[in-house]
Every structure is written in structure tokens, then in C-alpha cells.
Design a protein that fits this description.
The protein is an alpha+beta fold. The chain is built from 2 helices and 10 strands; from the N terminus they run αββββαββββββ. It has 2 domains: 36 residues, no CATH class; 106 residues, Ferric Hydroxamate Uptake Protein, Chain A, domain 1, CATH 2.170.130.30.
């Protein structure tokens, strides 16, 4: 038999070895295909101040802000409703669902946001989010020591 030719037995052995090496996953030229990377997400939590919270796992997008995440949560099944004014650095949240800001003064609760445990320092329309960030809306009394 000329060199370079496989016998039928040799071909069957090669085919069986190739098939066995591809068990358990897709096989591309003798290697396993990589799993597709999971799409980046952020978490948004709405804490109503009475023990009730809503949690949303949302797809992250380049340039996404807390305002964008809040809009996505509003569009989600079983989402939220919210009212806000302004945009960018002057965006101001007035209400989530049926819970309205109580205004200024001692002991008054209002909607405040945190990202990764740090209280927001600008309008929620300006605060950018990165993949994996956790944003939280909390109906609470403003505490200047946290800023």
C-alpha cells in the first residue's frame, strides 16, 4: 500500500478517536469551541423603606446611566413606574410607583441612589454605570455624613 493512504481499519480508528475527543462539547478542528461570553449586566434595586424591595438584572450598555437603568426597570415585566424631571447632571427623581418624595426638612424621606455602596453625588442622569455595577434606589432620610 502506498505511503499516506489509510487502511479502512486505520480510518475507522481515526474517526472514532476524533468523535471521542469531541464528546461533551462542540468540536472545531480538534478543539472545543469556547462558550459565548455572557452579556454584561448591572443590578438595580429599589428599596421602598418599608421592607419591600424590587430587584432587576438589566443588560448593560456603553454609556448607560442610573437614569437609563431606571427606564429599563420601568420597561421590565413587573417593572416600576417613576416620575422625574430634568436630565443629565440635573436629573431629579420625584416618585417610584406610589411612593413620592416628602420634600425638605428634618426627618423627611426622599428617593436617594447609591452605586456600589457609594451615595450619588450628581443627578442620576449623569452617573455612568459599568458592567457588574449595582445601583440602589432607597426611600430614606438624607444623611449628609454619607455624602
Amino acid at each position: 500500500m502506498p505511503q499516506g493512504h489509510l487502511t479502512r481499519r486505520g480510518f475507522l480508528a481515526f474517526a472514532a478517536a476524533t468523535a471521542l475527543s469531541c464528546l461533551g462539547g462542540a468540536c472545531v478542528r480538534g478543539t472545543f469551541a469556547a462558550e459565548p461570553a455572557a452579556a454584561p449586566t448591572i443590578k438595580l434595586i429599589v428599596e421602598y423603606g418599608d421592607g419591600v424591595e424590587k430587584h432587576f438584572l438589566l443588560p448593560w450598555q456603553q454609556g448607560m446611566t442610573v437614569l437609563d437603568a431606571t427606564k429599563q426597570a420601568a420597561a421590565s415585566p413587573h417593572g416600576i413606574k417613576f416620575e422625574s424631571t430634568g436630565g443629565g447632571a440635573t436629573a431629579f427623581l420625584a416618585q417610584i410607583d406610589d411612593v413620592k418624595n416628602q420634600g425638605g426638612g428634618s426627618g423627611k424621606k426622599n428617593w436617594l441612589y447609591w452605586v456600589n455602596g457609594e451615595q450619588g453625588k450628581a443627578g442620576f442622569g449623569a452617573r455612568k454605570l459599568e458592567p457588574g455595577d449595582s445601583a440602589r434606589w432607597k426611600f430614606a432620610v438624607y444623611d449628609a455624613s454619607q455624602k
